[in-house]
Amino acid sequence: MNIPLDFAWIEATSLACVRITAFLAVAPPFSNGSIPMRIRAMLGVGLALAVSPVVTAGYVRLGTGVFLLALVGQAITGALLGFLVMLLFSAVQGAGSLIDVFGGFQLAQAYDPGIGINAAPFTRLFQMTAIVLLFTSGGYQLVLGGLFRSFDAVPVTGMIDLDRPTAALVGAAGQMLVSAVQIAGPLLIVLFLADVGLGLITRVAPALNAFALGFPIKIGLTLLLVGFVYAVLPGVVDVLAGDAAKLLLGVTR
């Protein structure tokens, strides 16, 4: 029995699978530790089959050595694109971390296997909320759409221009820091004013222990007002998903 095989189709789809899998291993929401790596690999294979009509158009078979180099190039391309998306969405995690620091929750750290770091309560809460919102709002579709359109600009036989990701990395890092402060900013101002008020009280009444009073007051203010910050997260995640899709297009264009 003779089963004909289209080796050009297999090679092109394999290269696309490597790029997509490397992207899924790094980019949120798929990079969360609660999603096993084998599930991400299976998803990468399925998505590669979906884009195979695009990546195989005009594909010419490569030699063994060139094909292996192309595999490495696709892994680097996918990982770079995924890292840019991860950096952009780190703004939500950074906002939670700022609230933990200023609100006095930083002492209650625990290892979170999902994000792979020691994190305080609001850091983990904001990160998990962002992941849930990405899946429920369809934001992950925008991110994957940006990845799929990268195949039009950077074919599976090529590699991304490293100058563009470097510039985009600097811009995304700055945007991440600014976004984190903007998300948590109103609550941080309240907590800062609470510190100023406690300092003035200490000057007026030195007998009062401002350090002992500060913890319960700041924790109470944080728990009372964090709901206002939490309520804006759906809109923030929606904007970040759109920015991530535009960033992927800008880097690969």
From TrEMBL:
Record InterPro entries = T3SS_IM_R (IPR002010)
Membrane topology designation: Multi-pass membrane protein
Q: Which UniProt keywords apply?
A: Cell membrane, Cell projection, Cilium, Flagellum, Membrane, Transmembrane, Transmembrane helix
Locations listed in the record: Cell membrane
Q: Which residues cross the membrane?
A: 6-27, 39-60, 66-89, 125-148, 168-194, 206-233
Q: Say which family it is in.
A: Belongs to the FliR/MopE/SpaR family.
Query: Which PANTHER family does the protein's record reference?
Result: FLAGELLAR BIOSYNTHETIC PROTEIN FLIR, SURFACE PRESENTATION OF ANTIGENS PROTEIN SPAR
Name of this chain's protein: Flagellar biosynthetic protein FliR
